[in-house]
Specification:
The chain is built from 7 helices and 9 strands. It has helices spanning about 15-25, 80-100, 120-135, 160-170, 175-180, 185-195, 210; strands at about 5, 25-30, 45-50, 65-70, 105-110, 140-145, 150, 180-185, 205.
Length: about 220
């Protein structure tokens, strides 16, 4: 049976992913800071540690585990540029360090769409830098690249759907609009579960268009 080690398990995506994995009888270990244990879904193994210090959690990782990196700044926005470095990038560095020390072979990282934009360019650059760090580790890796995940508490982008639809039919903006399309939380979870249940060798990238097909087989 697979064992999945997750960072960011108390978050918007992580808490829902943990529940689905447990329903599938997959063992889950979730890293949290001391005092946040109660925020994890029931049924997972709680690992108390500091996501910014690999030494505090590397001993809980087994070489056969699948590592899922979800930790990041909630509700990313241009004004959070410094946090992208101190949270998103810093945690990836420590996770890679912990996985290297533990001999883990497979790493899943929720990154972001890399189609150039102006408003969120800093966020994209940090996530691209994190991808490169993971690549350099030599681990088999799946990069999942959403743009914005719509779901409970995250519905406001639906107001922009008419704009997206219009941009998708204008020849000059059609390609970019599709590469920055919104996906829903179920499509995001399907992509993660697919990546967990179908480990790959080398580097695999799951882009928005593939997520919208709801890959789960």
């Amino acid at each position: 049976m697979k064992t999945v080690f997750i960072t960011g398990g108390t978050g918007y995506i992580g808490s829902r992913l943990i529940r689905q994995l447990i329903q599938r009888r997959i063992t889950v270990k979730a890293l949290v800071r001391k005092g946040s244990e109660h925020r994890l879904p029931a049924g997972c193994e709680v690992v108390t540690g500091n996501p910014f210090d690999a030494f505090t959690f590397e001993k809980y990782i087994s070489p056969s585990d699948i590592f899922v990196q979800l930790l990041g700044v909630p509700h990313p926005s241009p004004k959070k540029k410094k946090l992208f470095k101190t949270i998103d990038l810093a945690s990836v560095k420590e996770s890679v360090k912990a996985c290297s020390a533990s001999g883990i072979k497979y790493f899943i990282y929720v990154s972001v769409a890399q189609t150039p934009t102006n408003i969120m360019r800093d966020f994209q650059l940090i996530r691209a830098e994190a991808e490169e760090i993971i690549k350099q580790s030599g681990m088999n890796t799946t990069f999942i690249r959403p743009w914005y995940v719509v779901g409970p508490g995250h519905y406001w982008p639906l107001l922009l759907l008419p704009v997206f639809k219009l941009l998708e039919i204008i020849p000059s903006t059609k390609t970019k609009a599709k590469k920055l399309a919104l996906i829903n939380i179920n499509q995001m979870l399907n992509a993660l579960i697919f990546a967990i249940e179908h480990p790959n060798e080398g580097i695999r990238i799951i882009e928005i268009e593939e997520m919208k097909k709801e890959i789960n087989s």
